Amino acid sequence: MRLLLDVSAVPSRPVGAGVYAVNLAGELSGADVDVHLATRRRDEPRWRELAPAATVHAVAPDRRPARLAWEQIGAPALVRRVRPDVWHGIHYTMPLRIDVPCVVTVHDLTFFDHPEWHQRAKVAFFRTMMRAAVARAAVLIAVSAYTAQRLGSVLSPHAPVLVAAHGVDHDRFRPGPDDDADDLARLRALGVRRPYVAFQGTIEPRKDLPTLIAAFGDVARARPGLRLVLAGRDGWGTDAVRHAVERSGVATRILRPGYIPDAAVPALYRQAEVVAYPSLEEGFGLPALEALACGAPLVSTLGSAIEEVVDDAALLVPPGDVAALTGALEALLSDGALADAFRVAGPRRAADATWRRSAAQHLEAYRLATSGAARAPRARVERTGARV
Q: Which residues of 67-97 are buried (b: 16+ CB within 10 A; e: fewer)?
């Protein structure tokens, strides 16, 4: 099978969907697939290193508006040159005028369910393109059963919807000893000292960091040495986070190191007293799964794919509930036996979540797309990959 995988949307510092694309490309390029990657023009060296067995086509413009236009105008020419069996759009969209079967990944439906969590221009664009992709794709991939359910409810696709859960790089995200010297050295380089509560992810409205900051303020007053680390690059709408820090009464104990190197992320999870991921909604929630793999006691939220991902290996509270989040943090900070139980449960829960398994589920989608049997009178959801 010849696959043309569009990774042109992946930034130089990938998070979330970008991490998914990087790991999927790496796994597929080592499988029995002729993988071709459509990348940004200046991205060729990076992708040759990440997926050495793949053929890299560095043809997409670097800037977002031009890249999005290229997907519709330039991609058909690339398809005619490469002649793939299937095109995979890894981030909601696809070229609308190509004559090969297309597979499209849908990460969540928040552009429809919660447009207030996104920039207006993105909402208008992705709503239009998602409708078009759902109408034209041969197969749709949802990253969780929750996302598959929302996709069916919101857009009523006629193509099959396959659930392919994300994986974890277990060579990096694994348990380790307390006070590991390498971990602590990486944290010192970021200005992070124990003890701390950690968040890792893009700083944006959906992550609901003001609720975490308020809850931290409540538990921190009785723990003068405790800090809160909000790690991750700024997305948009960060003024609410800045104002919450200013109002917290513990602003000097809240650290915002920005985007942290890949090598430091597992250290941040392993050495944390608690990892908090208070997102209002997730289509998957990869940081939560990575934290579990590292053996971190985790507090996250009810009501979306997080429940599916973590099962009973974390404390879950209603989103946006300061009192409930305060209580969960307090429980893990004060009850060593409870925290230790979650340190054991997390790696067990994450053990089966591998990128190799995810890649195999994607191969199933590609085979279905090229079989000629993909289009169906009504959407169906294949749940073989629904459990993490």
A: bbebbbebbbebbeebebbbbbbbbbbbbee
pLDDT in tens, the chain (388 residues): 999 999 999 998 888 899 999 999 999 987 889 999 999 999 999 999 999 999 999 999 999 899 999 999 999 999 999 999 999 999 999 999 999 999 999 999 999 999 999 999 999 999 999 999 999 999 999 999 999 999 999 999 999 999 999 999 999 999 999 889 999 999 999 999 999 999 999 999 999 999 999 999 999 999 999 999 999 999 888 999 999 999 999 999 999 999 999 999 999 999 999 999 999 999 999 999 999 999 999 999 999 999 999 999 999 999 999 999 999 999 999 999 999 999 999 999 999 999 999 999 999 999 999 997 665 444 455 554 444 4
Interatomic CA distance for residues 138 and 161, integer angstroms: 9
Indicate the Cα dihedral angle 131, 137, 140, 146, nearest 10°. Answer: 10
Cα distances (Å, whole numbers) of residue 222 to 153, 322, 334: 46, 17, 11
Domains along the chain?
2-167+355-385 (3.40.50.2000), 181-350 (3.40.50.2000)
pTM for the predicted model, two decimal places: 0.93
Angle at 104 between CA 101 and CA 108, to 5 degrees: 165
Q: Which of 217, 367, 215, 223 is nearest to 276 (CA)?
A: 215
Integer angstrom CA distances of residue 332 from 197, 241, 387: 11, 24, 26
Residue 38: half-sphere exposure toward Cβ, Cα within 13 Å: 29
| Interatomic CA distance for residues 236 and 122, integer angstroms | 12
